[in-house]
Amino acid sequence: MSTKKILIAGSSGLIGSALVPFLQAQGINVGRLMRHAQNEHPYWDRESDTFCLNEFNHPDIVINLAGENIANGRWSEKRKQQLLDSRIITTEKLVKHFMISSPAPKLWINASAIGFYGNRGEQELDEESPVGGDFVSQLAQQWEESSNAIKRVGTRLINLRTGLVISKDGGALAKMLPVFKFGLGGKIGNGQQIMSWIDIHDMVRAISFTIDNESLNGPVNFVSPNPISNSIFSHLLAKQLKRPNCFPLPSFMVRLLFAEMGKELLLSSTNVVPKKLIEAGFKFKYEKLEESLKAQLGG
Description:
The protein is an alpha/beta fold. It has helices spanning 14-24, 77-99, 135-145, 171-181, 200-212, 230-241, 251-265, 275-280, 289-297; strands at 5-9, 29-33, 43-45, 50-52, 61-64, 107-113, 124-125, 156-162, 164-166, 194-195, 197-199, 218-222, 228-229, 271-272.
């Protein structure tokens, strides 16, 4: 029986770094698509604009997580274009390559984000909810659209609409930890904005679940069933670290420090439910934030 082959782009990011060893532990042959020429891994030769994939020329599954970190630096027009290009151009080139590959991959998993829905207050959102009007919404929508062509060759497509990923090893939580450990943490703005999150362990388990569950197609929300307000998030994080939670970051300071990025990433409220995962029978290991924080931070 042949070993399943999965090619992953963006394997060095927060999700990819956890996903690669998780899949390998299941006996899956994982190829990490690199950005520079080398012998150990498949790579994308930027100078000749060709993919050198070796044994991964015909993978069973492609997982595309590639894209520059959206939270690194203020959003100038140049920076916005970089965020778009790092997602759209990479995805389009990968899709174009594998559309003419025979046999085509059976499954394509493409990263996206719950930013697709934009700032929607307390409104409950599932995969059928319409796109928002923010920059992050348009970014996610275009990212998803850039992967749609792969369906023309009969490949099943999943778009990972990912929420805030809880991991001590990176992402938002890792950035918050020094502030909260020094006892300087607190709510952001009025603290009422809804945060839809998922533990990194459930994230990789859910990706594996979508691989095995052929009934899942299109956008899938990768979030816990229990979103919470920023105020409660801050309280639970401070409690887990046994530190005070009394230094709020006012909205005007968020806008002053981070401009549009702060408004859309820190002050927006997005109340998302994982409707498709639940209906397909996925069981979360960490449904409550306090369970996730304890697993990540100990104690």
